[in-house]
Amino acid sequence: MLPLEGLRVIALEQAVAAPFCSRQLADLGADVVKIERPGEGDLARGYDGALDGVSAYFAWLNRGKRSVVLDLKSREGLEALEALLAGADIFVHNLVPGAVERLGFGWEEVRERFPRLIWVSISGYGLDGPYAQKKAYDLLIQAESGVISLTGTPEDAAKVGVSVADIASGLYGHASILAALLTRARTGQGERVEISMLECLSEWMMPPMYTYIGQGRTPGRAGLRHNMIVPYGAYACHDGQVMFAVQNEREWTSFCAGVLGQPALATEARYGSNESRLANRATLEAEIERVLAHQSRAQVIERLERAGIASASVNTVPDVVNHPQLEARGRWTEVQTPAGTIPALLPPHNLLGAPPRMGRVPALGEHTAEVLAELGLKR
Q1: For 152-156, which contacts have Cβ atoms below 8 Å and span 24 or more sequence positions?
Q2: Are 184 and 191 in contact (CB under 8 A)?
Q3: Nearest-angstrom CA–CA distance, 233 and 223
Q4: What count of other Cβ atoms lies within 10 Å of the Cβ of residue 117?
Q5: Per-residue pLDDT for 336 more than 70?
Q6: Interval 268-282 mean pLDDT
Q7: Angle between helices 206-215 and 197-204 (to 10 degrees)
């Protein structure tokens, strides 16, 4: 058995955050019933048609779920949702603020009818406070949380290139659900889980916020360099760039001797600690690139390896698709979609005794008749 086999999840969800949360549950064996609106379904279905007409986002987020179309503006649709929740363990939702409450399925109403249900809200700003009713999407939360202020070059800010706010809130939601299941096993009672996208990214912003609180300054944007550790990032050499990271004074000494060939640099007062290297990064990084300009990438990487300094390639998307480490560890598999078979990466849970269930990506309403029949209802 998979760890969550036998649990039923009702997911009234759309876009990325809640679907990413519930997909983790499906991968681990839960029966995830995805409620979609008539006609268009989850709006992520229409993001693109990258996979022979199937949206890349939808395929990534919704494998292993059963799609049920319900018109929640109708009495029949609301009755069906009520019946589904009566037999469910977890209710995940991320509709616009207040929508679930207007339907009659807010926490206070639900806990009276289904005391063992774990009720999970994922929203932009939380269920109260002055921002509670604001709509929120990933890029907006990256901006609101300050992530964008730290991302990009000194001249131009940039967003993170993946849906980091959605992913963070989905993962915090998943972890909180597992904690709530443990609590329910002890108490027999359900739980309210409330995830705020702003709070998730604000938590990730704590090192720069602590820098501001403690020193009255904020780290600047540093492009492909770290904004709080030097040297750490991409540096030019004769035929391209090399990415590497010096994490402590032992590594700094090894880097100066083994990579730069300047052991005395390690003891210069200007560079004797990370804080001083950060303050003098312009002169230090210019000297690093002066030395590396006479070496090829292969030579620099070989020296970094000998010196015990961590390094990486600045890969493109095709590079990652063909990454030798992913191939060597057998991370690629296949899943079925309405348009046929597509490749998929195994989720990184990596439980030794519980390989994930890589279920089919459902067509809109594919399981409506099946699920309603289980409830004794007609479509």
Answers
A1: 152/221, 152/223, 153/221, 153/222, 153/223, 154/220, 154/221, 154/222, 154/223
A2: yes
A3: 9
A4: 24
A5: yes
A6: 94
A7: 60
Residue environment code for 265-277, b if the CB has 16+ CB neighbours within 10 A, otherwise e:
bbeeeebeebeeb
> Rounded distance, CA 285 to CA 280, Å?
9
Q: Is 71 a known active-site residue?
A: no
Q: Looking at residue 148, what DSSP letter applies? A: G
Alpha-carbon dihedral sign for residues 24, 27, 31, 36:
positive
- Which DSSP string corresponds to 17-54? HHHHHHHHHHHTT-EEEEEE-TTT-SGGGGS--TBTTB
Q: Which residues contact 352 (CB under 8 A, 6 or more apart)?
A: none
Whole-number CA gyration radius for the chain: 25
Residue 74 — φ and ψ, nearest 5°? -110, 155
Q: In whole angstroms, give the CA distance from residue 248 to residue 205.
A: 22
The CA distance from 328 to 306, in Å, is 24
CA 283/CA 178 separation, integer angstroms:
49
d(CA 341, CA 343): 7
> How confident is the model over 233-263, as pLDDT tens digits?
999 998 889 999 999 999 999 999 999 999 9
Tell me: pLDDT of 125 over 90.
Answer: yes
Q: What is the pLDDT of residue 379?
A: 64
| Selection from 369, 336, 368, 335 nearest residue 36 by Cα | 368
Q: Contact 247/229 with Cβ under 8 angstroms?
A: yes
* 336: β partners: 341
**Catalytic residue, candidates 27, 71, 166, 239:** 166
Domain 232-313 has CATH 3.50.50.60: no
What are the C-alpha distances in Å from 297 to residues 62, 244, 262, 281, 314? Answer: 41, 12, 19, 22, 12
- Give residue for tokens 């079925």: 336
Q: For residue 62, which of 360, 375, 368 has the smallest C-alpha distance?
A: 360
pLDDT over 80 at 335, yes or no: yes
CATH 3.30.420.40 fits 8-204+327-374, yes or no: no
Domain ranges of the chain: 8-204+327-374, 232-313
- Cross-strand bridge partners of residue 244: 233, 311
Residue 313: its pLDDT value, please? 86
